Amino acid sequence: MDDLAAAADVSRRTVFNYFDSKADVVLGPEHEIPETTVEVFVAGGPTGRLFDDLVHIAVEALEEKGADLELVHLRRDVMRKDARVLAIAHERFETITDQARDMILEREGEDYDAYRARLLVQLLITIVDSVLDRSDADLARPLPELVDAAVSDARAVLNS
């Protein structure tokens, strides 16, 4: 909390004037996928390739949150050190996973297995985690470039 307050150039007390809890400060507001994005995805877009379309949504979400990678790393460090914040983050990831799974099933139809859809989302979450690992080495590297590198490596690993 002290690091976050210092990064914002405010006192710790000021931080808590604007946020109810440490989890709210660290994780920020819960992310909601814009309805237009859901509609485009369910209709088969924007690229027509299921995984690429999920990656597109993930990049949009990261960029929407401001993708200040230094702040993301700071948040990640706090999560790793605070079991309560980590548990809340896990709950949020479960919610996101369920929402994305439902979007995939709506798009792909009843024949697409729910376990397969969930696995696809979990792979994407793992790729996003890899993006954060990669950005440790180079905070100046553009986010889409980091995502492309991680996706490329994931495809190579899965095809080997």
Automatic annotation (TrEMBL):
Q: Which GO terms describe its molecular function?
A: DNA binding
* Pfam families named among the record's database cross-references: TetR_N (PF00440)
- Give the coiled coil ranges: none
User: Which controlled-vocabulary keywords does the entry list?
Assistant: DNA-binding
Q: Which Gene3D superfamilies match?
A: Tetracycline Repressor, domain 2
- Domain (HTH tetR-type): give its ranges: 1-26
- SUPFAM superfamilies the record matches: Homeodomain-like (SSF46689)
Question: Protein name, please?
Answer: TetR family transcriptional regulator
Q: Please tell me the species this chain comes from.
A: Nocardioides antri
